[in-house]
UniProtKB/TrEMBL annotation:
Lineage of source species: Bacteria, Bacillati, Bacillota, Bacilli, Bacillales
Domain of life: Bacteria
InterPro entries the record matches: Cyclic-di-GMP_PDE-like, EAL_dom, EAL_sf
Protein's organism: Metabacillus halosaccharovorans
One Pfam family of this chain: EAL
Gene3D superfamilies, per database record: EAL domain
The name this protein goes by in its record: EAL domain-containing protein
SMART domains, per database record: EAL
């Protein structure tokens, strides 16, 4: 008689249908969904001081305060649900419709929520100093079920939040360091088109992590790099790989490279760049555009303005990304007077059916003309959008309508 062996599976949380349906619907509509977990790092200390009944009450107050803070946050429309999936932490499911902004969007949310939550809890428990930690992870689409994908992301976010679980945090840190040491990233190229001639004018290089792993997804890769304080190292590696690719294919077009303000404000940047230029003497700085990405504030970055000045002295040009998506990009434009302004795809999407968006475009073009900046429109997906851009004399454009990110030479041939 055949004996059935019991298999052990780690316990999984049973998710309510509304949560699963909300996450599934958001993802099928093309949005990213992130799991943000907040834990109380000194809960054990609190537990030792109070009776179980008091501890239960504390957790109830914490959940109540958390919900109140979230409900009154400026990110309310992006929140799918707030939930306490496990007894010692709180979870937010955050819908983000612009994958290039997701990491910064989450970190802004954290910077706003945590002080308010701490203030709320202090009014309830002034004699106990609460300390919170945060972790986040994006829900992957390549799982068999939404529940499995959600559970995996939530557990990874918990591990990142509870850095007291040193094995998982150290494992993540070592994984990122290994990727950087082995230079295990690759670059895709997306052409940028001159709308007056319909010819390739430039390329934007886009990063992918180790092939066949979760970190191949740039969202996961840069998310973990930021949380492990290795974003500068990763982006300097991207710069090195970019120089290698330019040399390898003999690219003579302009090249756009994305950099966070964190990297552009790092005091090691100029020295690191000089070393790379020495190794790659054929690189022409005048062909390189350093693109200030994301909606991070540049305030408080002591070396940012000095680094920008030194980059320009070397011949590099500066672009500001995401213009029209929020206040930060407009503030950055006024601060650094960029050579190029990239208009966010949120303005471009369906602009052919929206007079308001076209008016926004005209206003941004006027700002660009005042600052002497070229204009690049991002996210063009159909001919009608491209026609509006031509009508308004936008300089350059990129998007799936022209080509998806891929091999540079193949994209060039396809566009001929």
């Amino acid at each position: 008689m055949r004996q059935n062996k019991l298999k052990y599976y780690p316990p999984k949380f049973v998710l309510r249908d509304p949560i699963l349906e909300g996450v599934y619907q958001a993802m099928t509509q093309g949005n990213q969904v992130a799991v943000v977990v907040i834990t109380i790092s000194n809960l054990r200390e609190f537990s030792q001081q109070f009776e179980p009944v008091q501890l239960k009450e504390y957790k109830s107050v914490l959940r109540e305060g958390f919900r109140e803070v979230v409900e009154h946050s400026p990110f309310r429309e992006d929140l799918l649900v707030v939930h306490d999936y496990y007894s010692e932490g709180l979870t937010i499911f955050l819908k983000i419709n612009d994958d290039k902004q997701s990491v910064v969007h989450i970190e802004k949310l954290i910077r706003i929520l945590l002080p308010k939550l701490e203030k709320y809890m202090f009014t309830k428990y002034p004699y106990f100093k609460q300390s919170f930690e945060v972790g986040y992870m994006f829900i992957e689409r390549n799982y068999s079920t939404t529940q499995e994908a959600l559970y995996t992301a939530q557990q990874q976010a918990v591990a990142m939040a509870e850095k007291r679980i040193q094995s998982r945090y150290i494992e993540t840190l070592l994984e990122m360091r290994e990727i950087i040491q082995k230079r295990d990233i690759s670059l895709l190229a997306q052409p940028i088109i001159d709308l007056s001639s319909n010819q390739i004018k430039a390329w934007e290089f886009l990063t992918r992590g180790p092939k066949g792993t979760a970190l191949e997804n740039p969202l996961q890769l840069f998310s973990l790099a930021r949380q492990s304080n290795l974003i500068y190292d990763l982006e300097l590696l991207v710069l090195e790989k970019s120089f290698q690719l330019i040399d390898a294919v003999g690219c003579v077009d302009d090249v756009f490279l994305n950099f966070t303000p964190i990297t552009l404000g790092n005091k090691r940047l100029i020295a690191g760049l000089d070393k790379l230029l020495t190794r790659h003497p054929d690189i022409d700085p005048k062909k390189m555009i350093f693109e200030v990405t994301e909606r991070d504030s540049i305030e408080g970055l002591n070396f940012f303005h000095d680094n920008i000045k030194q980059l320009r002295k070397k011949g590099f040009r500066i672009a500001v990304d995401d213009t029209g998506a929020g206040y930060s990009s407009l503030h950055t434009i006024s601060e650094i007077l960029p050579d190029i302004i990239k208009i966010d795809r949120s303005v471009i999407q369906d602009i052919d059916t929206s007079k308001v968006k076209e008016s926004m475009l005209k206003g941004l073009i006027l700002i660009a003309r005042e600052t002497g900046s070229l204009v690049v429109a991002e996210g063009i997906e159909k001919k009608e959008e491209a026609d509006v851009l031509k009508r308004n004399q936008v300089d350059l454009a990129q998007g799936y309508f022209y080509a998806k990110p891929g091999n540079m030479e193949k994209a060039r041939v396809a566009l001929l």
